[in-house]
Each structure stands twice: as C-alpha cells, then as structure tokens.
Amino acid sequence: MSVDYHIVGDGNELAACAAELFTTVTQKAVADRGACMLALSGGKTPKLLFEKLGQPQFESLPWQRISLFWGDERFVPEGHADSNYRMTREALLERLSVKPAAICPVNTSLPSAEAAAESYATTICEIFPDSAIENGWPIFDCILLGLGTDGHTASLFPGDLTINEKISWTAVGRAPDNSQRITLTLPVLNAARQVIFLVSGSEKAAVVAAIARGQAKNLPAAMVKTKKVTWLLDAAAASTLVSR
Ligand SMILES: O=C1O[C@H](COP(=O)(O)O)[C@@H](O)[C@H](O)[C@H]1O
C-alpha cells in the first residue's frame, strides 16, 4: 500500500487539487483500459469538487468513458436533501454537456435498504466489464471517500458490524442516528486501484492525525488499505498532523 498526503490551504484549493487528481486518474484509466469506473462520495467536502468539475474547462474530460457509482447513499428518496445522488446531480451532472457513459445511483425507491443494497450490487455487476472483476470483486479505478469525525468512511461506521462484511459487495450501514445507509463494503474499497480521501475542516484534525499515526487502527477509515491511498487535506484538517 502506498499512502500519500497533499495538504492545501482551504476548501477551494482542495477542490482544485482534487479536480487535477480526478483528471489524472480518469485519463490514465481510459488510456490503459478504455474506461474508467469511479465511485463518488457524499458529504460536504466533495460538493466543491463536483461544482468545479462542472465548469467548462473540464468538458474535455473523457466523460463518455466514465461510469459513475456512489460509495454510499442515504436510504432516502432521490430528491431528499440528504441524498448524495441529488447533491451530485445538482452540483455536477446537470451542468455537464457531455454525459458520462453510465450514471448509477443507488435505487432508494425499493421497499427496504437491504433490497436497495442487493440491487446495487447487481447494478455494479451489470455495468462492470468482466475484465474489471477480479477474484470475485469489482475493481474500481478510483473511489472518492470522506471521513467523519468519528472515523467513518463511506457508510462504514465504528461499532457497526457492516465493517466485517467479507462476501457481499454492498451492505446496509447504520449511522449513529440509527438511520440506514447503503454502502460499498470494505473489501470493495480495498480492491480499488486507488482511493482518494477528501477531508476539510478543523473538526476532522484529531481523527486525521490519529489515523495517520497508526493510533486508530480499528476505525473504518484506517482499515482502508487499498494499493494506493491518497489523502487530500485542507490546512485545518491537517493542523494536528503537522503541529507535532
Ligand atoms: O465517505 C464519506 O464520508 C462522509 C463524511 O462526510 P462529511 O460530510 O463529514 O464531509 C460521509 O458521511 C459520506 O456519506 C461518505 O461518502
């Protein structure tokens, strides 16, 4: 596993740096394999990235070769304020003149979160080419992740047994407020070619430093050990990390 850190000033710089990484990752995947399979994250931090990617200078990205999935989703209707898909649609997808090869949100209109998780695994399986499934796991070119102050990532929460899932591609995670969320499982995160954590804000500084120093090995975000892990932090999120 290689881990690298990029520390930038603020949320806008973070979005600019993330957009550059996004460009590199998508272009490389398309050059190497003809397609790019990406999972997007929810949360506050990626919104600025999505708005940036919706600007005209990113129209030349190989959108028609990019398939978009979500690393996690709240079990709420598609138009709900908490929907990760709604946020991405408004911040990015509605602004794109060239449409991605596939846009695959979680179907949250199904009767239960379990049904939505199961159906999402089927969707991934249908869209992924056979060559992008290895040893029974889908190989995402890149998964964008966030980090909660409690160390959760995607919808893998500390203390929730979903983190132990070893067979399924998707599962239902339970957030501390007891709400249900559909999430990619840890083996899927770890099978990806690369994950990029986007983290901003001083409230994340302590957990970022604890994970980076190996002092929080049992937190879900610390259990992400993909071949290539990139942490993109703004100065506030990196403040504890760089202060000692
Ligand atoms: O990976 C993720 O992380 C976040 C934490 O988000 P933030 O709002 O604190 O930036 C999480 O809740 C989100 O659903 C997820 O995709």
TrEMBL record:
CDD domains: 6PGL. Pathway: Carbohydrate degradation; pentose phosphate pathway; D-ribulose 5-phosphate from D-glucose 6-phosphate (oxidative stage): step 2/3. Its EC number is 3.1.1.31. GO terms for biological process: carbohydrate metabolic process; pentose-phosphate shunt. It catalyses: 6-phospho-D-glucono-1,5-lactone + H2O = 6-phospho-D-gluconate + H(+). It comes from the Bacteria. Residues 10-231 form the Glucosamine/galactosamine-6-phosphate isomerase domain. GO terms for molecular function: 6-phosphogluconolactonase activity. Keywords: Hydrolase. The keyword Hydrolase applies. It holds the Pfam family Glucosamine_iso. Hydrolysis of 6-phosphogluconolactone to 6-phosphogluconate. Belongs to the glucosamine/galactosamine-6-phosphate isomerase family. 6-phosphogluconolactonase subfamily. This is 6-phosphogluconolactonase.
